[in-house]
Amino acid sequence: MIIDIITIFPKMFKPVLEESILKRAQEKGLVKINIHNLRDYSDDPNKRIDAPSYGGGGMVFQIEPIYKAMEAILEAPIEPGRKGPSHTQRILFTPKGRTLTQKKIKDFLDCQRLVLIAPRYEGIDQIVSDYLVDEEISIGDYVLGGGELPAMVFCDCLIRLIPGVVSDRESVMQESFQKRMLDYPHYTRPEDFRGFKVPEVLLSGDHQKIKEWRQQEARRVTERMRPDLLK
Description:
Blueprint: E1 2-7, H1 14-17, H2 20-27, E2 32-37, E3 50-52, E4 59-61, H3 63-74, E5 88-99, H4 102-105, E6 113-117, H5 126-132, E7 135-138, H6 148-159, H7 169-173, E8 192-193, E9 196-197, H8 207-225
Parallel strand pairs: 1-2, 1-6, 5-6, 5-7
Antiparallel strand pairs: 3-4, 8-9
């Protein structure tokens, strides 16, 4: 999988992409992540990529540098209005987008290439939303300073699901949201810390009882913290 990220703050990504799971995935050759500075595609002498919104308002990303960036990345003219499944998906991060979920992230696992656009300021020219991207995604009902953090969240969420990235595949499949349930509680040593004790069933060695306990606890936690998942 190749992931291309278009941003005006490329340095924001370096600490995240060069640590932990994302770093190992790249070292294993399971994913290649390219960061593109949108200002490199601006014809403005000062490398501006935004302009005032028509009708009044704040500064908005212009279509021209974004189009040129996407055209250079994909090495082909951009087809306006293409929607639907494809091995290449163009994604815009915006508060107006569909909320990212564990179920939604799996839709992108079969993609060979993803182009992620991280806007700033008051947003982006609506033509980009209407004709140049396949998906608009939000990571929650709140507003951030830009699309960089959502792009990082998206990458972290997606890449860890790629086979071979996490060595213990079974642990990934048991995590929260995989089966519309939150994860069950986890405990480790010591068995008794100042009177705070690990549940006896986890020390029993009875794998069937442990499995049943974990299923019950996962449901109990979900009912208490996120009952909406069970509807």
